[in-house]
Amino acid sequence: MENYPQHQQSNARLDLLAKLFKDGKISIAEICTLTGSPHDEIETAFLKQGIIKMRTILVGGGAGFIGSNFINHVLQKYPYYRIVNYDKLTYAGNLDNLHNIEKDPRYVFVRGDIADFETVEKVIQHYNIEDIVNFAAETHVGRSVMYRADEFVRTNVLGTHALLEAVKKNQPQVKLYIQISTDETYGTLSLDDTRKFSEDTGFAPNVPYAAAKGGGDLLCRSYHRSYNVPVIVTHCSNNYGPYQHPEKLIPNSMFRALRNQPITLHGTGRHVRDWIYVRDHCEAIDLILHKGRTGEVYNIGSDNEKSTYEIAKIILQMLGKPESLITLVPDRPGNDLRYSISTEKIRAELAWEPRTPFDEGILRTIQWYQHNIDWVERIREKDKEFSKYI
Question: Is 309 a catalytic residue?
Fold first, then answer.
């Protein structure tokens, strides 16, 4: 090896240390101790000579809630991974979610639409993308029901199709495509049903959003079967945690309660969801990225089923507010009564377990919003029409 400023080490010794590092038998910190060289000099030399290789991941929709948490997770955990965040920046996309890493040399932001095949392919080739994790989706269930579903079909179906075509055309460079989906594609269960959705459960979506997501998921299956595109699909339950848009149940309930405004729940408030802390979801995707089998589907959940009424009560108790703030309003069309998801497969194959109990996760979440009011106010300012509801 060469190019170690301030230190005249023998090439033979440095070559031996480099070989030991490549074989995983010594760390950069140990090399620094042995040579007296600063960490950044060793690291820079190894990167230049290809001893350390940067792995570049394209994250679709990385400015959204789950995507931004995933980007933070990856950059914190893997020093030699680079992220290209490809996001259209719709109302749900927020670069404030990534302000802490925006100057990290391993992070790049590209504004773009996943349905734009030509731009997607240019980004893949320019940045030498090896993996794609796609969070990009139109996800607001109510908007898909109350208004036209054109954007849901365009992004969730045609956008997925464009990504799959780009992966197919750029093999073997792109080694894996992970499609992040939802348990809502499986339909609904009754409150007393003992069954859980498994990876083999057929799709029975009841709202346009879920139908569009299911269409994208089925395209993933077909591209693997027809063209051997290396794709994995995940179905996750309801996420909560930092950076979730304030329109969603948990942050919305919190902010309305703080202003002593009614917390409105659809129907009887008995709709049950499985709630998972967002960082647990990110850890599951991390495992799938490194150990998952292509062509497979993995369900992700925390076996933590609670009704919307229970969630509202918990938040009111935490904030010292009366339960009388809960107000029931007419149910919306297609509102599924209950989701229950089996995670036996990911637990057995990848030894994944959710690590955050709900009482701990909800406390962290409430505290995060209380400490980041400025973040919420900037969203209010950006979307003044919707801000009256949060």
Answer: no
| Catalytic option among 184, 247, 283, 336 | 184
What's the angle, vertex CA 240, arms to CA 220 and CA 191, rounded to 5?
80
CA gap 148, 208 in Å, rounded: 9
The pLDDT score that the predictor gives to residue 145 is: 47
Would you say 263 and 199 are in contact if contact means Cβ atoms under 8 Å apart? Answer: no
30 is annotated as an active-site residue: no
Of 134, 48, 43, 47, whose CA–CA distance to 84 is shortest?
A: 134
| Domain range 55-387, its CATH number among 3.40.50.720, 1.20.1250.20, 3.40.630.30, 3.30.450.40 | 3.40.50.720
**CA angle centred on 312, ends 311 and 314, rounded to 5°:** 65
Q: Tell me, yes or no, if 303 is annotated catalytic.
A: no
Whether the Cβ atoms of residue 292 and residue 232 lie closer than 8 Å to each other: yes
How much of the chain exceeds pLDDT 90, in percent? 76
b/e for 238-264, b at 16 or more Cβ within 10 A? Answer: bbbbbbbbbbbbbbbbbbbbeeeeebb
Q: Which of 87, 130, 138, 183 does the annotation list as catalytic?
A: 183
Active site residue: 81, 209, 223, 298, which one? Answer: 209
List Cβ neighbours of 239 (8 Å cut-off, separation of 6 or more): 65, 66, 275, 276, 277, 278, 281
Q: What is the pLDDT of residue 3?
A: 52
pLDDT at residue 92, as a whole number: 83
Whether the link from the prior residue into 205 is cis, omega within 30° of 0, is no
* pTM of the full structure: 0.89
The rounded distance, in Å, linking the Cα atoms of 41 and 9 is 13
Longest dimension (CA), the chain: 77
Q: Is the dihedral of CA 110, 114, 115, 120 positive or negative?
A: positive
Q: How far apart are the first and last CA of the chain?
A: 58
| Rg of the chain taking only CA atoms, in angstroms | 23
Q: Where are the beta strands (DSSP E) in the chain?
A: 55-60, 81-87, 107-111, 131-134, 176-182, 231-236, 238-240, 263-266, 272-277, 297-300, 305-307, 326-329
Does residue 60 contact residue 67 with C-beta atoms inside 8 Å? yes
